[in-house]
## 1
Amino acid sequence: MRFVKMHGIGNDFVLLRVQGDEQDWSRLAQAMCDRHYGIGADGLILVLPSSRADVGMRMFNPDGSEAEMCGNGLRCVVKYAVDEGLARPRGGRISVETAVGVLSAQVFGEKGAVERVRVSMGVPRFAPQEIPVLAEEEPPLKDLPLDIEGQRLAVTCVSMGNPHAVHFVERPVGEFPLERVGPKVEHHPLFPQRVNFEVARVLGRERMEARVWERGAGATLACGSGACAAVVAAHLHGLIGEKVNITLPGGMLVVEWDGVGECYLAGPAELVFVGEWRK
């Protein structure tokens, strides 16, 4: 089974070109993503044919659960599809069918090589039942209180096709105990489908930093949907403008949101290596 290893600012994935459901993908994701006994990755992505778009994708977390959305993975799929000849950009754009619908992507590079991708992440959603979160407040849910180990967190909740809870801090995000607090937020009873947890700091109208505890994966070097959720949450609080450079441990992404329509994510996508899985 031929695979491709790719990453978007350190958020790494194993990509497989497949035709359908011929495998137990959850089980395979657990095996391939294992960093000691497998290839090692933050997720397994299936690149699929699509009748609705240029290419389709499904993404599985290292714990075997299927993710609805993955921004860095989406950019990797776009680069893979163009590089492998599965999709030919029209006007520099291709479309990708995901679990949350068909999304558009714009490619940038020289001599046909895709180096950077700007993708639509869809329109953020704020209704509690759409995130989902078990809260009765009117949307958007800003500064929802969470008690974790005697510590009161205030999270802003948003769906980017998958659930997110964003907590803002004033000190550098590297000082926040994400590895201890993250799993407790992920599994908090307020979130019936678990949640991705972002700790974020606003550095200016056009600059932020963040770290992400990803549902089903843990702390990662980057998370595209998490970066978007952090920017959307900051926008809801009136802390930033419409275009933000957001720095994560693996590098920087650019997120754009006008407060009404689709959110856009831009950043690099890189090939690491190609291999053969024989287990």
## 2
Amino acid sequence: MTRDLLLISSSKTHGTGYLDHCEGQIRDILSGRMNALFIPYARPGGINFEEYTNVARQRFHKMEFGLNGIHEFNSPRKAVENAEAIFVGGGNTFVLLKSIYEMGIMPSIRDKVKTGIPYIGTSAGSNVAGKTIMTTNDMPIASPSSFDALGLVPFVINPHYLDSDPNSTHMGETRETRIKEYHAFNDDKVVALREGAMLRVAGDKMIVVGNNGARVFIKGQDPKEYNTPESLDFLLRPN
């Protein structure tokens, strides 16, 4: 399959600015491109599309790339079809997926990515690149018509993964517990990305990049650790 993906756990890491920690990877995947289409539907903190797009646009301009919000076009579908690259920002995953369905651009994004144009996702934007959003950490403040996501990769993603802290007095479920709950009812492999971690997908090749690594959860097995630049090609094979 022809695909060129950068799936980022978060748009910031502690002590860094917006997209600072992943600038090198963004420059690499956008090499030879001039402009990106930004999808701001996830609306972090409830900000509007214009505010969110301006944040992304300023950062992309700093990297010498152009950027336009999908809401700035008369036809979202045609905006996707004409895009040189797609950047889907983070925020609330339920709101994001609901908007993607309502705008009718799910098939357009899938088809466009199949042509090999770059797809960059941060947080919720990475989550929707998987098979389903059922491993998101977000509150379900909106109801998408389905939890089925873009399926650009044949597994499920859990951004912002936090390791269990044996010294914590928190009595709620850990992320590992939540993923095990998911596997009680579902068989899909889950890639949990810690803050600073990313997946770089090129065709049928995938490696971990960035910092802090990833954990891979396979039903019935103990989770395994993968760090930069280890290969995760096996996860791209059909289940």
## 3
Amino acid sequence: MPKISSPIAKTLVQIGLTEKEAAVYEALLELGKAGMGGLLKKIPYKRGNAYDLVKALIDKGLVTETVIKGKKVFVIEPPERIKVLLDEREKTVQQQAKTLNANYESLNSLYRITMNKPGVRYFEGKEGIIKIYEELLANNQPIDSIEDKGDLVESIPDYAATYVKKRVQKRIPNRVISPDTNTLNQSNPEKLLEARLVPADQFPFRMDIKISGNKVSLITFPEKNIVGVLIDNQEIAENFHILFEFLWTKLATQN
């Protein structure tokens, strides 16, 4: 492998070429154009390896292959192509950064779960909130809820009915504590729903809290931006279960 020492070769390596590709490019830059025989005199590579390197440069748009007087010739492209290559690389890096940012919370959550730390994911908008409910259903465990006045139905009416239908199909029971103004949360054995109500004027809940296994969801439904958090952690979930059981038992003694 040639030692990369010239400024041109170092620049080419920095923008993404391999050291061997940089050496071949620099040789062709000195020659302008050359057949494989002439090129091999300038580089320390065997024919097969040299052709692969030239092909890589052709794929990057830095070299063109043509035929002159019946012989295959490789022609160096203008240096502007290096700038185009760099621009394309920058766009790729920006897209990769965007993809990473979009999936960062999920990656971080998985890391925290692996390291026995709370896994927390943040969701926005209707599609994000639906993902939370779908994950709770996929958990296939009983769901305990402390609900608001019925904002899910108002905000995502089509999915609200779908959610209940899926929960019943999966035979997932749901215990609910909600304001007495929420007419949707009435105990219904067919829907596997058991509800206990609190006076809305004393306890005006404005959040949908759901506890299922080791998962806890916290969702609010403001008019402009629905937001939710999904926590996957055994200790946090157990404490929410204890809190729910306390409230559930307390309400039973009052009715």
## 4
Amino acid sequence: MPSYVKKLYFGTAGIPRSSKESSTESGLERINELGLDSLEIEFVRGVKMSADTAQVVKKRAKEKNIKLSVHAPYFINLNSPEEGKRLASQERILHSARIGYLCGAESVIFHPGFYGKNPKEAYQIIKKSLQQIRSILKSENNPIMLRPETMGKQSQFGSLIEVINLSLEIDNVQPCLDFSHLHARNGKWNSYEEFYKIIKKVERNLGKEAIKNAHIHISGIDYTEKGEKVHLNLKESDFRYDEWIQVLKDCSVEGIVICESPNLELDALMLKRLYYGEEG
């Protein structure tokens, strides 16, 4: 487990909309100009960053004290019935973790997969894949944290208890807590009391270090009875972000908060100002 970061770092999922160029380096410059302090590098359409660029990104982020994470490609299903697709999914996570480590990223975030025809077997299959990934990274002396994300659709593997259990059973695995997904998954988990229960459940099962080095996703969200439909800006959604912010304060949560709203930096800035006060 990395050392405690001793604060909450707020940032965006990908390059801010207002960046001058669509490059990670430009994104880091804009994050710094805005007064934000974290960036999740989106490899969601594929890992297209070279090792040389990754080294430059690491240097720039360190100079500006910006915390980095990476998000692995969306095309991952560790529970695919086809072995080739499972192995390709493992390789996508490994590639993300390798370039992420060169960037100086602390975590690689990923969607584990789908339940498929045998939901009861999904956990064991996904667990085995993650154990294999972790073993390879360990042999490469790559300490990056693997973070399976809590997911927003009922067909997707990634309930709160599933990601907690994976974190309990596999070394160097911790949750990516997407509170918007948890809300959309069942239409609940959207009050001070429920946010508090989520944090305390993580702390009770994984220890205080899990909430002292948390990785969190947040956005507005629209959903149906089947779960997540589309991300929204926070003020256009029913998500009670003011109560959520209060829980983070009351539970002394530390780590990284990544905003995935369509307006990215606008909601990220709003949340940071709510948490720290107008002086930000």
